[in-house]
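Lecture 7 notes: from sequence to structure.

We start with a single chain of 326 residues. Read the sequence below before looking at the structure.
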Amino acid sequence: MIMDSYHRGHNYLRISLTDKCNLRCFYCMPEEEYEFVPSAKLMQADEIVALAKIFVANGVNKIRLTGGEPLVRKDAKEIILALSKLNVTLTITTNATRLHLFADVFEEAHIHSLNISLDTLKPEKFLFLTRRNEFNHVKNNIDLMIRRGFHVKINVVMMKGLNDDEINDFVAWTKDTPVHVRFIEFMPFSGNKWTSNQVFTLHEILNVVKEKYEVIPLTNGVHDTAKAFTVNKHLGTFSVISTMSAPFCSGCNRIRLTADGKIKNCLFSKNETDLLTAFRKGEDVLPLIVQNIGRKEKELGGQLLSDFKKIHAEDIHNRSMITIGG
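Now the structure, written as tokens:
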């Protein structure tokens, strides 16, 4: 397993299949008219599989496919089925717009768990956030996957004054439905107009839930990014990814591979290593991977302060979320 200088082993690879998306969430994609990476500069299907095999041979046993929206890629099915033949747990993060076309593919690929982005339960707010009128379609696809027995986790980017009034609506959803809601503190990326006063923290989220429910903490694993909770007699759970107010970097085991073949050792790292160019030249990329992971900072890419209220987004050097892959 590849280790960093803080003795953290890295067995979890997140591969972005594309920077393209059919939604336009402002915190992820900076502009409506966005220039996507040309196809020739993206990892091709065989390159994705070949690079994944190198990671698997060196200790990776979990792969998550991300984007953009991974399922808009024309050869997504072929990539998914090829990766499913590796000795890994395969998962995916999606906006759910195309799930109805992939349910059978996921079952064939032994994908059992899905992370689905949904920041509101209100159709009109969904339109405002995503700039697309797709709420009913997305919600129907989520219900479809739950009915088919998939483990469904809902990623909710929580923003003060925008959707914090829906926290208990999401928790109520977990009562009779085995859905697992994950509230995510709003994080700064290039172009997403982040300010500290938009962050709705773990503490604030729990205070809201406790106004209505008795919260029961659940046990968290060493690599878990989400602090998990449930409510008595609820079929589902809720959790909080507290990147800004209570980071969880000490147990980080994640590696990110962008759609254009760059390795990032942290979501917030400003440095990245070009694996794709080296791979296309026939070079051994393993030393590049080891070197990149070895340079991993202790926490938050070495860029974010422990007190998020003192962070200035313009001082952070990074990509936009859509070009990282989450």
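The first helix runs from residue 45 to 57. Keep this in mind for problem set 3.
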